[in-house]
Design goal:
Helix content: 25-40%
CATH topology: Arc Repressor Mutant, subunit A
Strand content: 25-35%
Shape: globular
Distance between the termini: 42 Å
Largest sheet: 5 strands, antiparallel
Structural class: alpha+beta
CATH architecture: Orthogonal Bundle
Radius of gyration: 19 Å
Number of domains: 1
Order of helices and strands: EEEEEEEEHHHEH
Number of strands: 9
Strand order of the largest sheet: 5-4-3-2-6
Number of helices: 4
Length: about 160
């Protein structure tokens, strides 16, 4: 399965736009704004969220934001999609086409607007790199096998 690579792309609460992680600083992290290219130090007290860690609630599970971005990328054929300033009902209808079982009680219009705003920002900076999704189960299985093997050695 394919997804979008979101490594080192972050959102900082209270600051508009997206940022790219540059380096670890003594008192926080150094980030670069995707909008204007200026570098800032985000203090350790700032609420920083990596886009890799963000997911959208559905009725059964959480869908990673990268997978939502891939679906938008496929539907928009790699081009820009709806503006986040589009009418709320139109945004909700389009989002429902992408994620039909999203949890309408926990996913607000503001969240949907952010998804479209972030997608368009990443698309305009050509940061939507399509990659093969890593299978998590194979990693978990190999870790379990290694643990079993080491336990067998300990018992001998």
């Amino acid at each position: 399965m394919k997804t979008i690579k979101l490594k080192d792309i972050m959102s900082i609460s209270g600051k508009g736009g997206l940022f790219r992680f540059i380096a670890q600083a003594r008192n926080g992290i150094v980030v670069e704004s995707l909008e204007d290219g200026k570098r800032h130090v985000a203090p350790a007290t700032a609420r920083v969220s990596s886009l890799e860690d963000i997911a959208i609630f559905t009725n059964e599970e959480e869908v990673p934001l990268a997978d939502i971005f891939f679906q938008i990328h496929e539907k928009a054929e790699g081009k820009e999609t709806l503006s986040h300033k589009t009418d709320a009902s139109e945004l909700k209808a389009y989002f429902e086409e992408l994620v039909p079982d999203y949890d309408q009680d926990r996913v607000y219009v503001s969240d949907i607007k952010k998804v479209f705003q972030w997608y368009n920002q990443l698309q305009s900076h050509e940061l939507l790199e399509v990659i093969e999704k890593e299978e998590e189960t194979s990693e978990d299985e190999s870790a379990t096998e290694e643990q079993a093997t080491s336990e067998e050695k300990d018992t001998k």
